[in-house]
Fold this sequence. Notes:
By secondary structure, the chain is of the alpha/beta class. Helices cover 34% and strands 17% of the residues. The protein is globular, with a radius of gyration of 31 Å. The chain binds ligand NA7.
Amino acid sequence: xxxxxxxxxxxxxxxxxxxxxxxxxxxxxxxxxxxxxxxxxxxxxxxxxxxxxxxxxxxxxxxxxxxxxxxxxxxxxxxxxxxxxxxxxxxxxxxxxxxxxxxxxxxxxxxxxxxxxxxxxxxxxxxxxxxxxxxxxxxxxxxxxxxxxxxxxxxxxxxxxxxxxxxxxxxxxxxxxxxxxxxxxxxxxxxxxxxxxxxxxxxxxxxxxxxxxxxxxxxxxxxxxxxxxxxxxxxxxxxxxxxxxxxxxxxxxxxxxxxxxxxxxxxxxxxxxxxxxxxxxxxxxxxxxxxxxxxxxxxxxxxxxxxxxxxxxxxxxxxxxxxxxxxxxxxxxxxxxxxxxxxxxxxxxxxxxxxxxxxxxxxxxxxxxxxxxxxxxxxxxxxxxxxxxxxxxxxxxxxxxxxxxxxxxxxxxxxxxxxxxxxxxxxxxxxxxxxxxxxxxxxxxxxxxxxxxxxxxxxxxxxxxxxxxxxxxxxxxxxxxxxxxxxxxxxxxxxxxxxxxxxxxxxxxxxxxxxxxxxxxxxxxxxxxxxxxxxxxxxxxxxxxxxxxxxxxxxxxxxxxxxxxxxxxxxxxxxxxxxxxxxxxxxxxxxxxxxxxxxxxxxxxxxxxxxxxxxxxxxxxxxxxxxxxxxxxxxxxxxxxxxxxxxxxxxxxxxxxxxxxxxxxxxxxxxxxxxxxxxxxxxxxxxxxxxxxxxxxxxxxxxxxxxxxxxxxxxxxxxxxxxxxxxxxxxxxxxxxxxxxxxxxxxxxxxxxxxxxxxxxxxxxxxxxxxxxxxxxxxxxxxxxxxxxxxxxxxxxxxxxxxxxxxxxxxxxxxxxxxxxxxxxxxxxxxxxxxxxxxxxxxxxxxxxxxxxxxxxxxxxxxxxxxxxxxxxxxxxxxxxxxxxxxxxxxxx
Length: 893
Ligand code: NA7
């Protein structure tokens, strides 16, 4: 029947010329089928081209033994039509490839899609015709196609990677690729079989091949983390959840991080005991669900090496428990990448297969393959003879299927291979600047392979088709991403990638599996829900970052970058906006303090330090409380006198607890957080004078506090940064204490409100202009405001201690912080600045919420250590293990 379809199509266009359609879809898998359905319903003429003989896409080709999906099938399904959902029931938790292929065939029949698909047809080249504003696609079978829009629904894992091992052609036995498995039965009984590759495909196929082959030899380069699929019927609890309210379940999936509805995990690993962590892990192991184990153990598992290592060790323990030979168990246990940074696998009896007498593991890290010979495989230690070699060596992922159409020539004759010479550049993973009217479904730059593909595909298809409908209504015939938007998306992608651990592994997510391929994290790591909201926001902002033209309408181009905030800052601000809180100043001073306490109680707990203590010191007018954070390393340590934020009105010595803990760990120094007096009860200069008195008292009592005698350091955030700066000026004027350095994080430095950041960031970024007005009014009368004890920018700056000044792009206080740093530098004070792009006023103190703040705090800690004359320890030595990319990459290479 597919052949008949080809013939039918060809005869339609036999009278010469190209087939004319509104839209060409390349690919007839999950994405292509839904596209055809939606395009047709929207009244567009469309044709789909696919080199396969039938529908199915990746599921048409990947027929190897054991091939199954690794997302539960109730989630790995179309959701666009409730009738379709009712009409199909999956037989297993993880359906086999034949069942998924039957499902896609059922969908094609149900919506009569095959009549618009040209099977056995490969697109050989694509050229944008600027005069006609149309794409011309040439094919290897039948007429070319001329279309207004060209949509690549070509899948992320559809172009198998060449074997790249010498001598493949010399092998006289049978060769199979998991990604191009024959349709007819492959007989392995009684044969000596080799499998090269232990990714998902290898791990699914190996146990079944082992059952048939006389002997199976597995060649493993990188060990993968695998967990038992625990396959069977769909789990009753998930099914019940789905059936109880199908629409709500699906909607929750659409807005979740991975496209499967699991709640956001809030507990962090260091809050849980060993027993609690083990219990959670055992539950995940028994659940047999990748998304569950990747998201539900503890909140820091995907973003922090320490939190992640705990899981790696628990999995390695399982492997040791299953595999009898300790050497084989060790070889099967990954040590070179964080769990989840490389696709983990779901298996059925994978590890136990190595206990069979007819299975051997060859660790290519110890004996690399030299060549494939006529009779088998030669490593640099041994020679093996085989009847069959199975390549489970993976794909040229994400970009391979797009660049397989070559050349794709866009505006001005520019080709896709030029545009992507240094890696895939896209806007949203959907479009490419320079290639008008070309869309990719789940392309590089979209959540794609880091998500459940089904909702991701539906979201992309809906977004594209809705745009085509809107363009038709508005009279636009072309749409193209701008360079600005595309560059902004690349920055946002990179920002997102710094949050997760994907950058720490050499994988097909980063292009590292294909020799010579440019490297970088290709899928969008910011999550399905946030991505969806970004796509929606682009539409609500008049197609931000797109140029639209049409013959009878004026060009439209609202140029710009869709996300300028760091990804986690965006999430925090969106969450705050959703809470629709009244302005903080409307609560009154006490109400605002109560609110802050409540807000702080909900944040992640600060990390453990060596010791936390409290005490009382002597302020300017009586005793003041302080809290002391001491590192775990042996003392004495230099002391940092810390002043909390809160506009001279809010907060106390505990309110920046996570920040003090984090900095104590990173610097290896004591942090003494001072509970200075607050306005309106104690107005100017109470806080400033308390700050100074506290620094003096702490310097005098350094030894009692376990500190190093000699100079202290000062640090502060926001109003606390103001107090730290003022303390340095007062100490210089009043003959001590000696201060070795000052860390000013988003400090208040001046009493004017006319710098641009006060206007640019007046609202929407948590600290508002009106809140600052309120703080100023409560703390100091207008007559006092030019006093350097509240406006240090107006003071004498020469001779002050070296400074590290941090400012955030989206903060009303940004420009006065920059002005202070510049003024210090002009006065001859050694100054370093950190102007944090995409950050807001609270970015650095919201430890373990704003993960992108880590690198800034690392720099702050280095500065403090430098000021204190300490050697720059590695973070490990200072008691912290954060991501150490070079280390892990070196281990992986
Ligand atoms: P993967 O996950 O890319 O796995 C390919 C495997 O083949 C992996 O273990 C590779 O080791 C290995 N490989 C690749 N090239 C070689 C050479 N030249 N020599 C030795 N070993 C090699 O592909 P899969 O098909 O298993 O899975 C792809 C996705 O499909 C999967 O994640 C699911 O989402 C569905 P390496 O890690 O590169 O050292």
